[in-house]
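ok so dumb question maybe but i'm new to this and my supervisor (M.) told me to 'just get the structure for DUF4148 domain-containing protein' and walked off. so i did the thing. is this what she meant?? sequence i used:
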Amino acid sequence: MTTSSRIALASLVAACSVASASALAQDLTNNPQGPLTRAQVRADLIDWLQAGYDPLNWLEYPENAQRASVIVAQRRAERAAAGGAMQPMQSQ
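this is what came out, is it supposed to look like this??
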């Protein structure tokens, strides 16, 4: 390998690592509400499970996730319209 090809390869590797690091940093910093608490994550999981999402059903993924996503979004919009907080739905 010549010196110029080593420099080109090193610059390519550096550019790729900088691009991937900045992409990861954007995902973590773009949440305007800050990081979620453990209770918020659990409440979100409860919402998804009550909407029919089964994380162990790999055969129907991503359809089951998309279907549950629509249901969760509808329920949250209904709660927001009713003035309710972002709490999980109570099972009936």
